[in-house]
Amino acid sequence: MFALSVGIFNIGSILPRAVYALLSGLNAATVGIITCAAVELSNIAITDKLTRILVFLAGAAGLLYKALWYFPVLILVAGFAAVTHDYRWLHRLVQGLKNIFILARASLVGVENTIIERRIRSDNNSSMMAPQEYEMTSAGDPESRTIPQEYQPNFSWRSGTAIITTFFVTFIVVMVLRGVLHNPPTLYKLFANLFLAGTIIFGGGPVVIPLLREYIVAEGWVSPRDFLVGLAIIQAFPGPNFNFAVFLGGLTAINNGHSVVLGAIIAFIGIFLPGMVLVHGTMGVWKVLRSKPWVKSGVRGINAGAVGLIYTAVYRIWQVGFIDEDFQSGKSLGDDPWWVVVTATAYVGGRYFSLSALLALLLGGSLGLVRYGVIMSQIS
């Protein structure tokens, strides 16, 4: 990623048309691959009507608004919604308001309070059954896995809590300084933005792409064209999409007159440190929390919300995946039917014929070059 950022910085402002065709084909194939991953994850995350609704609503809400805080809030809301549904909190609230209305009406018509109270007590007992049944079902489902002693985490819940608390104190300090400093250095802002992204991102690699575009390109540190060129190329590299942040960090540094090595290191630490620290902290508290029914409900909703946001990522890349010298900031792949075919081919190949991501990308790039050859032959 470091070498790629140096290479992208040194290329000219205009690339050969064949290169644009190749990159557009890679982007189109990427959309198909991520769509395939989203569908497969949906099959895992959707376990009932509630999770199906949460996947849909999270994806739809992610399309309608963009902000630094928006994605994590959507995912937390999905988790809260799952807990609220499983414990019927909303039902209890409605039932309480209904009981108040019944008592008020009974006092007006003169019905005996004992009859009304007996009816209310019966309704309350029936409304309490669902949470109790859910808790018994969840608590009665013991973990079937047996973890060898040497592989069990050697963290107590106190150590885990201390690690998580220290991390979030550090996170607050970094964000406050980012906001209150009058003119902080570019590399500090880079670290703060990627530290924020690494902390709040849920849902894995595909979701991080639009987030990085928002935190890096929107700041003016990297041009939209360089972002899209790097995005197309990185799909052919092994490793997670989080590595893309290293490329963007190096390019940000060199564009602002700093060492590309320093920018790449800062980006690496910023994007990966939150996950590494939080994983170790969670190892200490998870053994205590994982048997709690409300935790299982919350994780179920969070997973559904995170999968929904992958569809948002698909849409964001789709809208800017087609690049050429006339529109280097990218435009919708849907503007040309050829890229729709490339996307569909990558999706169908991965979904139904077990086509690997690397082969799908090679096919997408090849089809991009085929399109270029056909257009050039028509021109000549």
Q: Helix fraction?
A: over 70%
Tell me the distance between the termini. Answer: 38 Å
Count up the helices.
15
Strand order of the largest sheet: 1-2
Q: Hey, roughly how much beta strand do the residues contain?
A: under 5%
Q: Label the structural class.
A: mainly alpha
Mean of residue pLDDT values: 81
Largest sheet: 2 strands, antiparallel
Tell me the total number of β-strands: 2
Low-pLDDT residue spans: 128-143
Shape: globular
- Work out the radius of gyration: 26 Å
What does the secondary structure layout of this molecule look like, with pairings?
Blueprint: H1 2-10, H2 17-45, H3 49-64, H4 70-86, H5 89-109, H6 113-139, H7 157-180, H8 186-200, H9 205-217, H10 224-234, H11 244-255, H12 260-289, H13 293-320, E1 322-324, E2 327-331, H14 337-352, H15 357-379
Antiparallel strand pairs: 1-2
Helix pairs in contact: 1-11, 2-10, 2-13, 2-14, 2-15, 3-4, 3-13, 4-13, 5-6, 7-8, 7-12, 8-9, 8-11, 8-12, 9-13, 11-12, 14-15
Give a summary of the structure in a few sentences.
With 380 residues, this protein is mostly helical. It is built from 15 helices and two strands.
Structure description:
With 380 residues, this protein is an all-alpha fold. The protein contains 15 helices and 2 strands. Strands 1-2 form a two-stranded antiparallel sheet.
Characteristic key phrases:
single chain, 380 residues, mainly alpha, 15 helices, 77% helix, globular
